[in-house]
Write a structure and sequence with these properties.
The complex is a heterodimer of chains A (290) and B (334). With 290 residues, chain A is an all-alpha fold. In chain A, 70% of the residues lie in helices and 0% in strands. Chain A contains twelve helices and no strands. The two termini of chain A are 34 Å apart. With 334 residues, chain B is mainly alpha-helical. Chain B has 13 helices and no strands. In chain B, α5 packs antiparallel against α11. The C terminus of chain B is likely disordered. Classes of the chains: A mainly alpha (290), B mainly alpha (334). The interface between A and B is large, with 66 and 68 residues.
């Protein structure tokens, strides 16, 4: 390898790949969102409607493109409706976590030193523990429901955001335009809202995209354990759980929801990654954690 | 060094204490009576009260907390409500399998991390780089439990190469010691593979970014100028320096690995801490929940402290990074 080549390789990924990743991410995320929104039109039947006895555990065919499950329900219809659950839980819980995390992070970054220490200690406390453990503990406290899952995923998800936002706020705080705004006599609230927050958007947008994928994964695991959304609501994790009993004679039951789930999550991760490269080149190549 | 370590450990102890106390109250304030797990419903009120007393579930919450704290400080973790045997016994049995699983997965993961980071950093922008990135991102985006099921479907049910679950064969008791360990290794392959593959991309990208930085340094240029082979430049001068930040990351990665182990243990029926934890949560088995919380907290603290010590030892220039300044992300281990 000659030297000029080596230097060139440090420059960053080639543009075509960047664009391709972004496009693929957009297609997957928008595709899944469209499918979720248009579920009643795309797959008119009732996802919970039981099929005929003869149609139970039918392999994929012209009549049921992706086969049927143990109760004769059409897998395709259920997959389409499952998108709604996954995306709803993913987005609502992440937005809640982002709002909490941004508020905490900004307060820590802009507030007095004791507040910073207090907030960051609490953040560390939560972060030191495997998140899935906290989620399970909290979810198992009362009867499982959609609201509970979203609340728990939100409550356990803000810490990483708070860290990121605080770090970003600390650098923004030292910039000239913020000092100028202070000098002009703006209140701390005005400075935070008008001058700090706009600078945080790239960080927030990227973190949101990366986190939605994670939240969708968490929801699916809870549903797999039976702690997630309950019948007759459909969820991909619940479908995988049901398919587990027929892993071999009904391979499509556990396999297909996982594929759809993975494609959706890949979409959000790709989108987040590529948005980061585009919005915030400094962070390029960092972790996958937003 | 010593003052730093003492302060660090004191902080950690406080952290664990707050955490465990919080879990104590949250779990007990939740609806659901653990007594229902232990006794028949027809029992009279008087009898129930008696059993409650014997299980240490009587009195106010504060009294229960004081009792629990007292016995915990004496090293007594109590008796499982569901299994009616000492918690230490249950934990002791589950510890071995979990250590075996997580340490194996840790090792596998480290190999994957280093190999993929080297490929990505040296083949930057080339098809191989993109292939590794694509594969890594895909595994990163897969649900652990589904990946586990797919491995079972493919390698166990279809090909019959590995057992589908458990950590030893039913007839393990009749095997010789050597055969027994071989049997366990055989059972270990699929769970460890799932755990290692599911999350290697996070640290790998981190290491790759570090390698990129290091490879742009002047001393790499100097090493090349001296005519060293590319392999030597990369391994002796590049990787060695890039690995240091990874030490800290691997310490912070431990919670993720423990969380992932929980998921994998559930799917594979691996008799470890994760399964004990989930079963205890289901059954509201307070003493077991408290013990696993405590142990997880300790494991995490020990992991991150060790990582910091190692980092300090490896690179004396570094001031110990204040934990609140670092940006360790936590990927949801599902």
């Amino acid at each position: 390898m000659t030297l000029p080549e080596t230097m060139a390789t440090v420059q960053g990924p080639s543009p075509w790949w960047r664009r391709r990743g972004l496009m693929l991410g957009l297609i997957l995320t928008f595709g899944s969102a469209l499918i979720g929104l248009l579920a009643p039109l795309l797959a008119p039947g009732d996802p919970a409607a039981l099929g005929e006895l003869s149609e139970r555990l039918a392999a994929p065919s012209a009549q049921h493109l992706l086969g049927t499950d143990l109760l004769g329900r059409d897998v395709l219809v259920r997959l389409v409706h499952g998108a709604r659950t996954s995306l709803l839980v993913g987005w609502v819980s992440v937005l809640a976590a982002m709002i909490c995390g941004t508020l905490v992070g900004m307060a820590a970054g802009l507030g007095p030193r004791w507040l910073d220490r207090l907030l960051m200690s609490i953040t560390d406390l939560f972060m030191a523990f495997p998140r899935i453990f906290l989620i399970l503990l909290l979810v198992s406290l009362t009867a499982p429901s959609l609201m509970l899952i979203m609340a728990v995923l939100g409550v356990t998800g803000w810490m990483g955001v708070a860290r990121l936002v605080r770090a970003e706020t600390l650098t923004l705080r030292e910039r000239e335009f913020v000092a100028a705004a202070r000098g002009l006599g703006l209140t701390p609230w005005q400075v935070a809202w008008r001058h700090i927050l706009p600078g945080l958007w790239p960080t927030i947008i990227v973190a949101t995209s990366l986190r939605v994928g994670g939240a969708i994964l968490s929801e699916s695991f809870l549903s797999y354990l039976g702690l997630g959304v309950q019948e007759p609501m459909v969820s991909w994790g619940g479908m995988i759980q049901m398919g587990r009993a027929n892993l071999v004679d009904g391979w499509w039951l556990a396999t297909l929801p996982g594929v759809v789930l993975a494609l959706t999550v890949i979409g959000y991760n790709l989108l987040g990654e590529n948005l980061r490269e585009w919005l915030d080149p400094r962070r390029q190549g960092g972790g996958l954690d937003g | 060094m010593l003052p730093w370590l003492t302060r660090r450990l004191a902080q950690s102890l406080l952290l664990i204490f707050i955490l465990v106390s919080a879990v104590f109250f949250v779990v007990r304030l939740a609806p659901g009576d653990p007594l229902n797990q232990v006794v028949e419903e027809e029992l009279g009120a008087g009898d129930r009260e008696l059993i409650r007393q014997r299980l240490g579930l009587d009195g106010s919450l504060i009294e229960q907390y004081q009792r629990w704290l007292g016995s915990m400080l004496q090293g007594d973790l109590g008796t499982s409500l569901r299994q009616q045997r000492p918690v230490t016994e249950i934990i002791g049995e589950a510890m071995g399998p979990t250590l075996l699983l997580t340490l194996t997965a840790y090792g596998l993961q480290l190999i994957l991390v280093i190999a993929s980071a080297l490929i990505m950093a040296t083949r930057r922008g080339q098809p191989l780089d993109h292939a590794v990135q694509g594969i890594g991102l895909t595994f990163y985006s897969l649900p652990f439990f589904w990946l586990a099921l797919m491995f079972v479907l493919l390698f166990s049910r279809q090909l019959g190469w590995f057992p589908a679950g458990g950590w030893e064969s039913p007839d393990a008791a009749f095997l010789s010691v050597g055969e027994r360990w071989l049997d366990r290794l055989h059972h270990l392959v699929l769970p460890a593979m799932t755990l290692a593959l599911g999350a290697f991309m996070g640290p790998a990208r981190y290491l790759r970014a570090g390698l990129d930085d290091v490879l742009a340094q002047d001393y790499i240029l100097a090493a090349r100028a001296r005519g060293l082979s590319e392999r030597r430049v990369l391994l002796r001068h590049g990787l060695r320096n890039a690995l240091m930040p990874l030490i800290t990351l691997l310490g912070m990665w431990l919670p993720n690995l423990l969380g992932g182990a929980l998921v994998v243990e559930v799917v594979f029926g691996w008799p470890g801490m994760g399964r004990v934890t989930i079963e205890a949560i289901w059954a509201r088995d307070y003493p077991v929940i408290m013990a696993t919380t405590l142990l997880t907290g300790v494991a995490v603290v020990v992991g991150s402290t060790l990582a910091d010590l190692l980092y300090r030892w490896a690179d004396p220039r570094v001031r110990i990074p204040d934990l609140s300044e670092s940006e360790g992300g936590a990927h949801d281990a599902s």
